[in-house]
Design a protein that fits this description.
The protein is α/β, with parallel strands linked by helices. It contains 10 helices and 20 strands. Strands 6-7-5-15-16-17-14-18 form an 8-stranded mixed β-sheet. Strands 9-3-2-13-20-19 form a 6-stranded mixed β-sheet. Strand 19 (326-329) and strand 20 (336-340) form a beta hairpin. The chain is globular.
């Protein structure tokens, strides 16, 4: 039997959140090993659009986390920008009716009070920002702080910058605990890794890892599709979406919801979303969903009706019932740190998550109140029956 590896911290998950946790833990002087059953960015991160947003967040704890993360992303961009395709392109949220515009401006006023740069835009001014928008729109809000990265590149380069040891293709089978209840590392199908701290950054599978440590979280997959066009000249300058997207993000519904989200990329293709539905880990292609995405995009940008779609892909957002991630030490399992449940905001919120986890690991005073993100805040009524039965992890990943 191979001799167990040892380190200060094991990070479970080599996506964007795990990479950020590894980076800031390592920069705090800790020896870090990152474990993932697949490749780097092989889960939700690799299926994302790379959005770093404040525009879609209502005033409250998540917006505070997003503002902290935005500042950290700016620092990372200074260090790694050309490697991770960081683009501070800003966002434009468009209202389709006068009533929607009133509600959007009300949201923006609250965001400004919380520190967001949210600039109301009258209808005629919209077209200076986005000349190819559909005519006759009443107005919107411009968010200069919104940005984008190429998510798989970002995760890979943050892991490289961390200097952490990386073990991919290794499935976590157990999170052993000692007689005192404290975690002792992880047991994988490749052997054991001994450490006094384990960070659960397993994304959509964060609930399974938490359950293996005896501290379950009600993380559920929320499926979404992205439609990708042929390469185009830069005709869409910002991330542009309809105002009803914000309501879809905050919804608890398991049913299909679509709202138009459109953005250009540095490489040329236009990315079109967004859909949300809770259908477990069903990876089946859905033509009705993709058609709905295309229809919504052409309502915003009519020129897209003549553009060819190259492909569509899907991913699963790690959903928690109150739409806030679980971040920080879990009192139910000393030494376990939860860092999952970010739903569709994981790319944007990852640096702040990793920063707060590193502060918790080293006993530093946190930059944000950690209370809203407490991992033990969910009662038994928030768990789906049978969701975390032994063996489900192997069955659903087979």
């Amino acid at each position: 039997m191979a001799k167990p590896l040892t380190c200060d911290v094991v990070v479970v998950g080599a996506g964007m959140t795990g990479a950020a946790c590894a980076l800031y833990a390592a920069r705090a002087g800790l020896d870090v090993i990152v474990v993932d059953r697949g490749p780097v960015a092989g889960g939700t991160t690799g299926a994302g659009e790379g959005n770093i947003l404040v525009s879609d967040k209502e005033p409250g704890p998540e917006l505070g986390l997003a503002l902290l993360s935005g500042r950290l992303w700016t620092e990372l961009a200074d260090e790694l920008g050309r490697f991770i395709e960081y683009e501070a392109k800003g966002g434009v949220v468009v209202a389709g009716s006068p009533g929607a515009l009133t509600a959007l401006e009300r949201l923006a006023a609250g965001q400004r009070a919380a520190g967001v740069d949210a600039r109301p835009v009258a209808g005629d001014e919209l077209y200076a920002l986005e000349p190819h928008l559909a005519p006759g729109l009443p107005g919107g809000v411009h968010y200069p702080q919104d940005a984008q990265v190429m998510p798989a590149l970002a995760a890979a380069h943050l892991l490289r910058a961390s200097g952490a040891r990386l073990s991919t293709g290794a499935t976590v089978l157990d999170v052993p605990r000692g007689a005192d209840g404290a975690v002792r590392g992880v047991r994988t199908d490749r052997g054991e890794i001994h450490a006094p701290a384990v960070i659960n950054a397993a994304g959509t599978w964060g609930g399974e890892i938490a359950a293996r440590a005896g501290a379950p979280l009600p993380v559920l997959p929320r499926r979404g599709f992205v439609l990708v066009t042929e390469p185009l000249p830069r005709m869409i300058r910002h991330k542009v979406y309809a105002a009803d997207y914000v309501a879809d993000v905050a919804s608890d519904s398991a049913a299909l919801q679509t709202s138009p989200v459109v953005e250009g990329t540095a490489a040329g293709p236009v990315l079109i979303g967004a859909s949300r539905e809770r259908v477990g880990f069903d990876r089946a292609f859905s033509l009705p969903v993709v058609r709905a995405l295309a229809a919504g995009a052409t309502r915003l940008f009519p020129f897209l009706a003549d553009v060819h779609a190259q492909r569509a892909y899907l991913g699963f957002r790690p959903y928690l019932p109150d739409h806030l991630p679980a971040i920080g030490p879990d009192p139910r399992a000393p030494g376990l740190y939860q860092a999952c449940g970010h739903e569709g905001a994981g790319i944007g919120l990852a640096p702040a998550t990793g920063w707060l986890i590193a502060q918790a690991l080293t006993g530093a005073t946190p930059d944000l109140d950690p209370t809203p993100f407490r991992p033990d805040r969910f009662g038994p009524d928030r768990f789906e029956p049978g969701r975390f039965e032994p063996g489900r992890f192997e069955e659903e990943t087979a």
